[in-house]
C-alpha cells in the first residue's frame, strides 16, 4: 500500500494573487502604495514566480515611522478594552481565513501544508487571542509601565506569519504601534495580514508593513524615530543590530540562532524519542532556530536508537509541500540549499559518515534530503555551526554529567530536549542546560502563554508570556529619572580619622576570590576628598585583575546553586555588619564627598540590603498551563557572571543598589566601584568577610571605569555588563563591545538615577536584569 495523491487546492490562493494582479505595494497608514520598484517572490517547490513585491526605500520607511508616531497616542488612548477588541477581531479573522493563509504560506515558503494548517495558523491565532487578554488586563497587571512607543520589527523567512503574530500581538496589546518588515523571500502572508487589519478596524498607522531586502531592515534599525527594535534572525545580523543601536537608547530584543541538543537517556521511550526527534529536526525542513540538530544519545543504547532512527528516516516522504501526506517540503531558496550541501560535504571530507535515505528529489525547486551525520568530533564545524536545514549530527555520552557538558558545548543557548522516563533525572538535567527553553519528553512545543528566547549567542529577551509583554513596555520610573546624575549638596568635610602610628600604607587593595589582592600592574591612584585633601590610595585595576576576578567568579558557581533562603541570610548579615560600622562609613563618605548628611546614605544602604534580601526568596517563577497535557514551569535563573560599573553619586548606596540584586538572585559579580569615591566600597571587605559571603561571589576591582568597562564588555566569560556611572559614550561603548559575544547589557546612558528612590533603584524591573527566564515543558499522564 502506498500514499495516493492528496493535494490541497490552491484555487483560492491563486485567485487572491490574481485579484492583486500579482503585484503588491506597501501598507502604510492603512493604505496601499503603488508597486513601483519590485522584485519577484517565488514558490520554492518549483521556482515559479508567485508575485512582484515592492522594494521599500528609505523615504517609505520614513513615512511608515511617521504614520506610526501619529497613531500611537490615539492607540494608547483607546484603552485596554478597545485594543483587546481589535486583537480579538484579528484572531477571529485569522481563523476565518486560516486555509487561505496556510496555502499562501506553503506556496511562498515551501513548508508542508500540514505544518502551516495544523501548527502555524492555530498558534498565530492563539497569540492574538492571548494578547487580547493582556490588553484587557494591562491597567491592572502592568500599572507601573507604559508602552515603549514605535516599534520596528524584523522577522525571518522560516515562520513568516507565526513570527508576525509573535511580534505584532504583544506590541499592539501594550499600546505600541509598529513598522513591520517581513523577510524578503516570504512577504505574502504579511501582506494578506495587512488586509485583515483593515477588516478588523485597526486604526490607521497602528500597523505598517514595508517589504524589501536587508536595506529596509537597516533603515528601520537606524531610524531615530523608532523606540524599540525586535529582531528574529541570524546571530551575525543580530551582532550588527546590537552595534548599530548602541548608545541610541532604543530598547532591543534579539531571538537568534541555535544549535540545540536533543538528549536521549538509556531509560527513555525510544520509539517516542524517535518521533520527537523527527518533529525536532525535520519539522520545516530543519529551518528552525530551535531545531534539535545535535543528537546526544547514551552510549548503551546508541546503536539501537540510531537503527530505529534510520528506519524512520527511510519512511519520511519528501515532495510537493501542497500534498497533505508529505513530511518534508522544499527549502526556501537555492542559496540555502547550496549552503547546506557545502556544510555536509565538508563533514564528509573530515571523515564523518553521512546517511541519507534513498529518495528521488524533484527536478525543479530547492530540495535537500533528511540527513544523519555520525563520527563528528565535538569541535567539528558540522557540530558547532547552525546548519538551518534537515541535517542531524549524532554523538554519544556515558553519564548525565557528560551529557550536560556536551549540551553546553556551544556558543548558543536557545532550546534543548531531554528524554527520560525518570522525571527526577530529567528535572535534574534541565536546569543545568544553558538554554532558554527545555522540553522534557516532547519537542517543539510553543504557546503564547509561555516565553521563548535564548541565552548567550542565541540572543536576549523573550517572546510570549508575561515576560514577553515586558519587552514592549517601559517602567514609569524610568521617565522620572533625572536628566543628569544627582550631585548631593556638600557640607564641611569631616576628617577620616586620625592616623595611627603605623598608618604608612593607606592603599586599599582589590578584593578577588574573597581575599584582598594587590593590583597586577602595581600602580595606584590617589583618592581626594571634597576639600582636596588626600584620603587614601586604591589599586589601578587592569586586564589581568579582571581576568583573575572572572576566574574567581566562575569558581564560585556554588553561589548560584545555594538556596534563595541562604542568599537572603547572607545579605541580611551584610546589612547587620554594615549597621555595626555605620559611623565609620558615614565618616568616610563625608571625607570623600563632603555630603552634609552621610548617615542618610549609610542607612539607605542598609535598608537596600534588607530590601533585596527580602526579594531573594520571593522572586519566584510561574507555572503555565498551555494547551497540552502538562505544565510549563518558567524558572527565574541567574544570568551568571555580571560586571557592574557603579555610579559616582551616592557611592555606597549606588554600589549596594546594583550589587545586592545581582547577588540576591545567585549571580556572581565583578564590581567596579565609583571611580571618584571608591573607598566606600573597599571599606566593605571586612564586612563581607564576616557575613558568610563565599569567596568569588563578589569581586571588587578599583580603577578607571572606562578601561575596566571595556575589558568586561569584551570578556567572553562575562555574561552581562551593567554601567550606571552617567557616561553616555561609556554606556554606548559597552553596548557596542558586547555585540561580539552578545552579552546582556543594562546601562543608564547619560541620565542619572535617584538611588534613594526604590522605584528607580529597585523592584521587578531591576530584578529582571539580574535574571533570565527558562521555560521547562513537562508533559504528564501520557
From TrEMBL:
One Pfam family named in its UniProt record: Aldedh
UniProt-recorded name of the protein: Aldehyde dehydrogenase family protein
Q: Does the keyword Transmembrane apply?
A: no
Annotated InterPro entries: Ald_DH/histidinol_DH, Ald_DH_C, Ald_DH_CS_GLU, Ald_DH_N, Aldehyde_DH, Aldehyde_DH_dom
Tell me which UniProt keywords the record has, alphabetically: Oxidoreductase
Annotated TM spans: none
Family to which this protein belongs: Belongs to the aldehyde dehydrogenase family.
Q: Does the keyword Cell wall biogenesis/degradation apply?
A: no
Q: What organism is recorded for this protein?
A: Massilia mucilaginosa
Residues in Aldehyde dehydrogenase domain copies: 32-474, 526-747
Active site annotation, chain numbering: 255
